[in-house]
Write a structure and sequence with these properties.
By secondary structure, the protein is mainly α. It is built from 19 helices and six strands. Among the domains are: 107 residues, Arc Repressor Mutant, subunit A, CATH 1.10.10; 118 residues, no CATH class; 85 residues, Arc Repressor Mutant, subunit A (Orthogonal Bundle). Strands 1-3-2 form a three-stranded antiparallel beta sheet. The chain has a three-stranded antiparallel beta sheet with strand order 4-6-5. α2 packs across α6 and α11 packs antiparallel against α14.
Length: 479
């Protein structure tokens, strides 16, 4: 039955766990709110601290933080990733754990299900769907004329000063509904990323399991087709990402948010939800950028998997396992399971350990008892050293000031926009510095852009670099 299969899913198992109240509270406190992911060492420390507080309150939680985290990984409540450039592995909630926490939160703070705003959203969506799928020219013209007449009537009333303003109660109801929809949207990012992970595994499995010399997946990859980006999930997310990074729509969203946040009725909403609404554009860009990076990484890794011929080795090993299973099945009637075989098989083994379990090297343990001798004082030319530093070090302080100055005038700017307004004073060094800052404080967009600068030899140079956006919401990081 379908419910039997759902009973084995992490969402149901987490809610049905005897320790569900404590587990959900721990996961919600450390990974659900602002902290989407945490390095392993910090996560272990915080869970251990929270466990001590729960034990002091009378909760029976005998295991250590590492034991509970290991169990949560096995049960599918959290996921472990090792991002590129990270010093250690990181933990984050799985998509189903997020759904479980949101389900409990809605029970704790219920809201009216049949609201006017929800009904208005349904009616508006159905009317738009009916209109955009209608190919009849006369009906389309009739609806547009009716819409124009309605707008003309509203203009007439507005010119007379007869403006209908939404009541505070209805505005609050609609605001809460918008926040609820936005929270659902953020949960969709995790599900989309999981879809890409499953698609990547399925494509690799098809490559290994395919019979014959070439399969459809392999032919498509050799033809240069990006199967992950061209999948239904990839095309859907790419369209969403283009909409999210559109400068005009982004500016319209920020203007609408600023207007709504200035209304007095919003003071009736709790501080956490107001903060969520204020950070909505940057949160959407951050989560969307992360999923976009996952999409690109999986696509590149799949191509590398094929180009390096690694799949051929895995395919060979898979065939050897099949042959062994086939041979074993052929002998099952001739050799009994309890019969002793005059054969010794030496098995290889390895001990697998997590990065978080490694012990850091402590230099203080190898200090010598001898003191440090003073060296000869060299002749130093401070002016020469200052010149070398200016030539070798990138002036990040100046670059940050340029970015903040531009973001004070607009909501977002790419590296090309920065260079157009503030020419590269250090030539290529300024471009490299902007790329370094963008990797830490920016949001990667789609494709590439062409930038140009003038070197110290007065010659203009050009380069194609990845499109990276700096956004106003993260300008404080550049202080």
């Amino acid at each position: 039955m379908a419910y039997e299969r759902l009973r084995d899913q992490p969402l149901w198992r987490l809610l049905a766990s005897p320790k569900a109240p404590a587990f959900i509270a721990l996961l919600q406190a450390e990974l659900y709110e602002d902290k989407k992911s945490l390095p392993a060492s910090i996560f272990y420390d915080r869970i251990e601290r929270d466990l001590e507080e729960l034990r002091a309150a009378g909760q029976e939680l005998p295991q250590t933080a590492k034991d509970y985290v290991s169990n949560w990984l096995a049960d599918g409540y959290i996921e472990r990733r090792f991002p590129a450039g990270a010093a250690e592995e990181q933990f984050e909630l799985s998509a189903q754990a997020v759904e479980a926490i949101r389900f409990i939160s809605t029970i704790e703070q219920p809201h009216s299900a049949a609201t006017e705003s929800r009904l208005a959203l349904v009616i508006s969506a159905l009317m738009q769907l009916a209109e955009e799928t209608d190919s009849d020219q006369s009906r389309r013209i009739e609806r547009l004329l009716a819409e124009r007449a309605r707008i003309d009537l509203q203009l007439e009333h507005a010119q007379r000063g007869n403006i209908r303003v939404l009541a505070d109660s209805s505005a609050l109801e609609r605001t809460r509904e918008i926040i609820s929809l936005a929270e659902n949207l953020l949960g969709d990012f995790r599900r989309v990323r999981d879809q890409f992970d499953r698609l990547n595994r399925d494509l690799r499995e098809q490559l290994v399991e395919s019979d014959g010399r070439r399969g459809d997946v392999l032919d498509a990859l050799f033809a240069g087709i990006d199967l992950i980006s061209e999948s239904d999930a990839g095309r859907t997310f790419s369209a969403f990402w283009r909409l999210l990074t559109d400068p005009e729509r982004s500016a319209a969203l920020e203007d609408a948010l600023d207007t709504v946040l200035s209304r007095e009725f919003l003071n009736e909403i709790d501080l956490r939800r107001r903060s969520f609404l204020r950070r909505l554009p940057s949160t959407l860009l951050e989560q969307g950028g992360f999923v976009h990076e996952v999409l690109q990484t999986l696509a590149r890794s799949l191509k590398q998997f094929v180009q390096s011929r690694e799949f051929l080795e895995q395919k060979r090993l898979n065939q050897l396992l099949r042959d062994a299973q086939k041979a074993a099945l052929g002998l099952k009637d001739e050799v009994k399971a309890t019969e002793s075989l005059d054969y010794i098989l030496e098995l290889t083994s390895s001990r697998l350990r997590s990065y978080a379990q490694w012990q850091l090297f402590d230099p203080s343990l190898e200090l010598t008892s001898e003191g440090m001798e003073s060296g000869d004082r060299p002749d130093v030319d401070l002016a020469a050293i200052a010149e070398l530093v200016a030539d070798s070090e990138i002036d990040f302080r100046c670059l940050k000031e340029n970015i903040r100055a531009i973001l004070s005038l607009r909501s977002q700017a790419s590296i090309r926009d920065i260079l157009d307004s503030c020419p590269a004073s250090q030539g290529l060094g300024s471009v490299v510095g902007l790329l370094a800052l963008g990797s830490r404080h920016g949001i990667k967009g789609e494709g590439y852009e062409l930038v140009h600068w003038v070197g110290r030899d007065e010659h203009e140079r050009r380069a194609k670099i990845p499109t990276i956006y700096f956004v106003k919401e993260r300008a404080r990081e550049l202080v």
